[in-house]
Amino acid sequence: MSRQIRFPLRNLMAAAGAVAALAMASSGQAQTTYKVIGQPAATGMVQKNYERPFFENFAERTGLNINADYKPVDQLGIKDTEQLRVMKAGLFDIVSLRVSQNSRDEPTLLGLDLVGAAPDYATARKIYDAYLPVVDERLQKQFNVKMLGAWPFGPQILFCKKPVASLADLKGLKVRTYDQNLAKFMESVGASPVPLSFTEVHQALSLGVVDCAITGPSSANSSGWPEVTTHQYALGVQMAMNGYGISLKRWKELSTEEQQKLQAAFTKLTDDIWKYSEELTADAMACNAGKDSCELGKKYHLIDSPLQEADRAVLTEAVSKISVPTWAEICDRANKDCSANWKATAGKVLGIE
């Protein structure tokens, strides 16, 4: 009578692990882990439903033998204005780059998102397609970072704790801003710009440090801004662009085939977010105002101030009169070809020379 031989489970698991390790070693494909800076968790659904799952399943999504150690920037103890610096120092391998917030370190970035330049998603996409190669070249040269794609949170609108139904109502009010271009525009309509990071805004509104703040409807919903405001005004001053960059060192370690796989994965991710962002914006506007069409966010009861056509005209005029000249002066000091490169690409989309 034959006897059945039993092995302890831990021995079987150890043997399986050893076989897998030997197979990986023999194929010359030892697994790599990339350190990744993500979007702030507080920004909401794009981070939660698209970005985080992509990096948590990085090997599967890219088809590469690479894992990702993903951490949102607000959980790392790093300011979102310092992302390019820590990338240049070699501390991380991939960054979910906040464009406006890092434009002080590299003004070229802001050409993706000048105030008033992109009043809708279609225009924003044309600017992005035209201008991203310029940004990529500049970041490679200055920060050893290669851009793999970019996407928008969506139209950045006003949330106020005082009645605001037009730009004229901002006169004398303190408004949270996040880049120099936006601050200059707010000054032009009589408001006092107050630079604050996203995570500081809820408390600043609650305490009266600012009267209004600017962000996307979905981000405002996810972070509870409607709890401390009363009005939303849907004049989209910017699109809040964000980009994915990889350290040039890591990029050059990959074969041509691996680079193509990685690029294809990020292109799909960013294309998916472009579409999702537009859906989120429409839903969040409804949710913030407590409308029945709200499906994805939390219902609040903000007063939804109708968009004034006169304000749309003011914003359009600001592109050539305020946004481009203000930004070009700063950017050309850092990069002498900055505004010329923008006018040859994004500027052509908008008819600005």
Briefly, what is this?
Pfam families: DctP. InterPro entries: DctP_fam, TRAP_DctP_sf. The protein has 353 residues and is α/β, with parallel strands linked by helices.
Number of domains: 2
Q: List the total number of helices.
A: 13
The rounded distance between the terminal residues' Cα atoms is 92 Å
Strand order of the largest sheet: 7-6-8-5-9-11
Strand content: 15-25%
Q: Indicate the mean pLDDT.
A: 91
Low-pLDDT windows of residues: 1-28
State the CATH superfamily name of the largest domain. Answer: Bacterial extracellular solute-binding protein, family 7
How do the SSEs run, as a string of H and E? HEHHEHEHEEEHEHEHEEHHEHHH
The largest sheet, given as strand count, sense and whether it forms a barrel, is:
6 strands, mixed
Spatial shape: globular
Under the CATH scheme, which class of the largest domain? Answer: Alpha Beta
- As a whole number of angstroms, the C-alpha radius of gyration is 23 Å
From the helix content, strand content and strand pairing, which structural class follows?
alpha/beta
CATH architecture grouping of the largest domain: 3-Layer(aba) Sandwich
- Proportion of helical residues: 40-55%
Strand element count: 11
CATH topology of the largest domain: D-Maltodextrin-Binding Protein, domain 2
Organism: Lampropedia puyangensis
Keywords: Signal
Protein name: ABC transporter substrate-binding protein
Signal peptide: 1-30
